[in-house]
Design goal:
This protein has 241 residues and is α/β, with parallel strands linked by helices. Helix content is 46%, strand content 15%. Strands 5-4-6-7 form a four-stranded parallel beta sheet, with helices on both faces.
């Protein structure tokens, strides 16, 4: 099956049935890049549920590869991070070989964005409990970063999208100052609707922010050899480093 999006087609696998993230990605992608979104139905947001999701992801990778996508992006950081960085890389390489399509996991995307920003020390913010946050922190330490904190905001997994962006701003700022600084702020999770606070955080705290939506839009452009900066959503999209 062929598509006419003249700058490339991305297949994106959403981990939940939450609305929001797909719309945000479409709004921020340059004209001419097509998006085919498919959905999984993660509901509990627990370690065992995340760890068991790779076969379900692969089923949709196969569908998108058959469509002839130029890039496949299975997103949802936790299901890949709980595999560990080494195992995640093995899974992605095996899928790329089997389906003959470039694949970008969201966890690898976040590491790429942080390294591009020359971050060595990070403060992470999530909406997950301490046990999972420890797994996420280890993932980034294994990628070579010093993790000042992986601060979870206390909210049920199915209520994340109801948090106001101002609540998230306050959570991140409080923990950033408590950690006594970092080279970058990392926001884990596409469940919250927080595009509007990226620039405010960067201005107030004087460090770049890696947000899951803007990070994927940045790397999608890079991988499709497109360069269309977008202001208003932080340094990563404005500068396209």
């Amino acid at each position: 099956m062929a598509f006419s999006s003249w700058r490339g087609v991305v297949g994106m696998i959403n981990p939940t049935l939450r609305p929001g993230v797909t719309e945000e990605v479409i709004r921020l992608l340059p004209e001419g890049i097509g998006l085919i979104p498919l959905f999984l139905n993660i509901r509990r947001g627990t370690e065992d549920e995340f760890a068991a999701m790779m076969p379900a992801y692969e089923e949709l990778v196969a569908v998108l590869a058959e469509c002839g996508c130029d890039l496949i992006h299975p997103h949802g950081a936790p299901p890949f991070m709980v595999q560990g960085r080494k195992r995640e890389a093995e899974i992605v390489r095996a899928w790329e070989k089997k389906y003959r399509t470039p694949i970008m996991s969201v966890a690898q995307n976040h590491v790429n964005a942080l390294k591009t920003l020359n971050a060595k020390t990070i403060l992470g913010a999530t909406y997950f409990p301490p046990k999972l946050n420890a797994i996420f922190a280890k993932y980034f330490r294994d990628a070579g970063f010093t993790v000042r904190g992986m601060a979870g905001i206390d909210v049920p997994f199915d209520k994340v999208q109801e948090l106001s962006s101002h609540q998230v701003y306050a959570h991140i700022k409080r923990n950033f100052l408590k950690a006594k600084g970092a080279d970058a702020i990392y926001m884990l999770g596409s469940g919250w609707r927080t595009l509007d606070i990226i620039e405010t955080l960067e201005q107030d705290l004087q460090v770049p922010v890696v947000h899951p939506v803007t990070a994927r839009v940045w790397e999608i452009q890079k991988r499709l050899h497109v360069r269309e900066p977008r202001s208003g959503f932080g340094h990563l999209l404005a500068a396209l480093p």
